[in-house]
């Protein structure tokens, strides 16, 4: 199967500021690819170029082999886009919202009703189809947004923060639909700040920062690269502790986060911890907290960007 998205040195300037700066991104058909980055990293700008809403300043973006710049109309037919804020029509019912969306896609009337019913069923809203959208819960509205993005059976679905603000049950339902799309061979590009979501859902993730790709890989590979365990140490003298343990053979990498906590990547926490505590005592460093865990995508993100990703759920 070919690629649903290939970008080559994709770049977009706003005045002299490069919001997207030479980005190479690939979304193969039949895969869910996560696009992850801190606020202002360039995710929305990338998505807006892919959806033909914004012209690239330089480089190339292909959607199913079609150039977004020169074949915008054809590209739009291939893409379903569910933006962060869809602004569903509160004065309509769920069914009416989908009918209007179907008309925008020029779906013939005789097919429209059946297609709308199919999608309402897919996202579990058939029973509530004739209720006003204003009476829907946040999760129901998101599912309606998703159904709107799927009406014209797109090859590529682009989701911008699809589960933002949703409860756990609603998030799982959205994930199930997204997995079902993948099983049908469609490609999904998912911009999210929820790293647990990316970990569970994505076949591959690309972390971007300041408009550039920082790293790409499967969640498992990226976590494996971090090391076996991560020891998080709270102390009021992080720099002293860093120098005290920096030369130790069991240290793979040390990062100090914005809160001043040390994140020490080690092969085996059980061996490293006694040494670490001894080194702290020898250098007169008080430890106020020591925890360790298997690497998560949060650790991957911190390792590659030097920052903790803000704004994910507890
Ligand atoms: N229309 C615009 N005019 C000027 N600057 C812009 C415009 N759109 C985006 N930018 C700038 O481009 C950079 C990337 O923004 P973008 O919205 O793509 O980031 P993002 O990764 O989607 O962030 P967030 O997670 O906050 O949505 C930011 O510095 C932003 O201020």
TrEMBL record:
Gene3D superfamilies: P-loop containing nucleotide triphosphate hydrolases. It comes from the Bacteria. It is found in: Cell membrane. The keyword Nucleotide-binding applies. Keywords: Antibiotic resistance, ATP-binding, Nucleotide-binding, Transport. The keyword Ribonucleoprotein does not apply. Residues 5-235 form the ABC transporter domain. Its main location: membrane. GO terms for biological process: daunorubicin transport; doxorubicin transport; response to antibiotic. One of its GO terms (molecular function) is ATP binding. SMART domains: AAA (SM00382). InterPro entries: AAA+_ATPase, ABC_transporter-like_ATP-bd, ABC_transporter-like_CS, ABC_transporter_ATP-binding, DrrA, DrrA1/2-like_C, P-loop_NTPase. PANTHER family: ABC TRANSPORTER ATP-BINDING PROTEIN, ABC TRANSPORTER ATP-BINDING PROTEIN NATA. NCBIfam families: drrA (TIGR01188). Belongs to the ABC transporter superfamily. Drug exporter-1 (DrugE1) (TC 3.A.1.105) family. This is ABC transporter domain-containing protein. It comes from Micromonospora rosaria.
